[in-house]
Structures are given as C-alpha cells and as structure tokens.
Amino acid sequence: MKLIAGLGNPGSEYRHTRHNIGFEVIDALSEKLAIPLDRTKFNAVYGKGKAGGQDVLLVKPLTYMNASGEAIAPLMQYYKIAIDDLLVIYDDLDLAVGKMRLRLKGSAGGHNGMKSIIQHLGSQDFKRLRIGIGRPDGRQSVIDYVLGRFPEEDRPLIDEAVKRATDACEAFLNEPFDRVMNRFN
Predict the structure, then answer these.
(1) Element of type H or E holding 4
(2) What is the pLDDT of residue 86?
(3) Most C-beta atoms within 10 A of its C-beta, which of 97, 113, 148, 178?
C-alpha cells in the first residue's frame, strides 16, 4: 500500500492559499482516481482505494501544517506502510511559482510541516513532491505570504502544476521513482 499525503491547513479560510497546494493536489487526485476522501482517523481526512492495481491512501492531515507528522505517522503505523511507500506533497518558497520538483529524500529545508513529519517518522528518507510558490517581496512577511492566496495571474501556473503533480502521483503508483523523477523534474 502507498500513502500520498498533501500538506495544508484545514478550514475554509485556508482554502486555495499558497500553503495548501498539497491539499489541492490530493483533492484533484481524489477526483482523478475516483477515491473519495470519506474517512477520518488519526487527525486526518483520507480515502482508501485502488489505482493501477495498487492499494493507496490519499491523505490530508487535519493537524494544521506545523503538526503534519502527528497525522501521517499513526496512519503509516496503522496500515503498516513502509517509509519507502510514502510521498509527501507540499509548497516550496525556493521554487518559482508553478515549478515542481520530486526528490527521493532530504532535509526539511525550513518547512515546518516537513520538520514535523521527519520528527514523527524518525527519518527524512521518504519521497517528496515540492510545488513552487515563489518568495514574497521584501514588504510582506513569509507567514502572511504562505497564508495568502495566489494572485489571479499565477492561477494558470498553479492549475497546471496541480495537474502535473497528479500525473506524477499516478506515475508513483506504477513506476520506479527514479523514472518518475526523470519524467517530471
């Protein structure tokens, strides 16, 4: 079984904010794979289904971004999911808006949601898909920026990134990850 988690904050006030790009990808993937997000357990909303012959969990932690590991680690333990079968989707300030990068492993890179997951799993050796949200100009704080919505002119780039990310997630279910990285990076 594979677990694909998109990071974000719960609640309508955070919907479509830069920090919730992971949630957007999970919502799009849920629709594409016809796996409804109809379960709630371990501080997460998730769906369980099959895609490409593979059992999969699509997960949105409800713990708020900075405590994402509190939802992901117990789900992995409950469903006996190996760390090799985890893919985490999240926003990245260091990538241009709409750019996408897949990695086999790495540090948290200053991202509090990733810090939480690394802490709760006791490892940083899991796959990740980062979607660029760009950096704020010097007048706006990082917190206000990540909790803000994309400007209208960025929306086409984000919509395309979400589509490419769902395609990459689907490929993750069926192909070796190095091949997925070569195709989508």
Answers:
(1) strand 2-6
(2) 98
(3) 113
For residue 86, what are its two tokens? 């985890």
Look over the chain and give the mean of its residue pLDDT values, rounded to a whole number: 96
In the 3-class helix/strand/coil scheme, how is 141-169 assigned residue by residue?
A: CHHHHHCCECCHHHHHHHHHHHHHHHHHH
* Residue 59: count of CB within 10 angstroms of its CB: 29
**Is 19 part of the annotated catalytic residue set?**
yes
Distance CA 7, CA 94 (A): 17
Return the structure tokens found at 121.
């799993």
Ordered domains of the chain (ranges, CATH): 2-184 (3.40.50.1470)
- The pLDDT of residue 138: 81
**Contact status, residue 12 vs residue 79, Cβ threshold 8 Å:** no
Which residue in 16, 19, 111, 120 is the catalytic one? 19
Per-residue model confidence as pLDDT tens digits over 99-142: 999 999 999 888 999 999 999 999 999 999 999 999 998 888 99
